[in-house]
Amino acid sequence: xxxxxxxxTVAINSLLNYKTEKYIDTKNKAVGVxxxxxxxxxxxxxxxxxxxxxxxxxxxDDAIQSSVITKVKGTAVTNTSESGLLVWGPEEYVIxxxxxxxxxxxxxxxxxxxxxxxxxxLLFSFCFFCLLSKGVMSGKCIRNNENSNGTCEIFxxxxxxxxxxxxxxxxxxxxxxxxxxxxxxxFPKFSFSKSNILETTDQSYLKKCRYDxxxxxxxxxxxxxxxTRRAGxxxxxxxxxxxxxxxxxxxxxxxxxxxxxxxxxYQFTRLDATVSxxxxxxxxxFRHARYFKNAAGESYRSLYKVYGIRFHILVxxxxxxxxxxPLVVNIGSxxxxxxxxxxxxxxxxxxxxxxxxxxxxxxxxxxxxxxxxP
Length: 374
What we know:
This protein is of the alpha+beta class and 374 residues long. It has helices at 2-16, 29-53, 90-93, 205-208, 224-230, 235-241, 324-351, 356-363; strands at residues 58-61, 65-73, 76-80, 84-88, 101-109, 117-122, 136-142, 151-155, 178-187, 192-195, 221-223, 243-254, 264-270, 285-293, 299-322. Helix 2 (29-53) packs antiparallel against helix 7. The longest helix is centred in the last third of the chain and has 28 residues, at 324-351. The chain is elongated and about 125 Å long. Its main location: membrane. The chain crosses the membrane at residues 331-352.
C-alpha cells in the first residue's frame, strides 16, 4: 500500500512539474557548422520564400467573380460578284451579336426553292448505292432509259454546297477594327470589386484611347491587328480560314498595398494552333442560313459558310490580405522544420562521428525506481 501511494505521488508530481531539455556542449565544430547552416537555410526559406515571395502572412481569396461585356466596332465596304456592293458593320459580321465572334469572310450560296428535287448523287447502272448525298434520299432511282446510268432522288436545298476554301479574306481592313472588352471582378471574401476601365469623368476617354500596357493600361479597347500580333499570328493569314484566340485577363491583387496594386494583366494566345500548319483542324468556320419567301409564297434559303475569328475571354485572379492565422501557421511550420534539423544533427553526432560512444554516455541519464524494489 505504501508503495502504491508513493507511485501515485510521483505520477501526480510528474504531471505538475515542468521539465527542460538537457543540452550538451559537444565542441564538435563540424556538426555545429552543419546545424547553423541548416538553421540559416530554414530562416531564409521562411523569410524569403514564404513571407516575401508567397506572402504567407496573407489570407487568400481565389474565388473570383467576373462579368465580361464585349462590343466590336468598325465598318468596311466590299464589292464582289456574288453579293455586289455591300457596307459591313457589326450587325453583319458579328454573329450572333452577344457572342464574342468576329466574322471575317463569308461565302454565300444562291437561294433556291425548298421543294425542288435534286439528283446530285451519281449511281452505277442499277442504282445499287449512292456515293455521297447532301439530302434525304427518297428511295427512287431516276434513269432516262433502261440502258442509262441512274441517279438517286433526294429531297434537299439546291444548289448543293461547293467545297471551296477562300484564298483571301473578304474584309481585308478588319485589322483596324476594335473590340471593347469591359470586365468587372469581385472578391467576395474581402468585399472588393474593380473593373478594367479607368475611373475618370472624361467622356471622350474611351473614344481616343487604345490599350497600351504602359501608357493606357486601363483602356479596354483593343485593335484586332494588335491582338493577333500579340498572339503571334499574322492577321491576314488568320482571317482567311479563321481561327480561335484566347484572351486571358489575370488579376493578382495585394490588398495590403491598396487598390493601385490590383491591375489587370492581359495574355493573348491562339487556341487552334497545331504543330504543323498543314493540319486539317486549323481554322474556324460554321454555317448558318436565312429563310424567306417569294411573292408566290415559295420558301427560299440563303446558306452562308462563314470563316471568322472567335475570341474566348477567360478571367482568373486571386486577392490577398493580412491575417493572423496564416502568419502563425507558417511561423509554426518553420519552427517545426528547424526542430527536424536538430534531430538530424543529433543522429550525425551520436552515430556517425568518432566520439559517438562518449556522446551517447553524456546524453543519457539512468535513474532508479524512487519507490525502491519490493
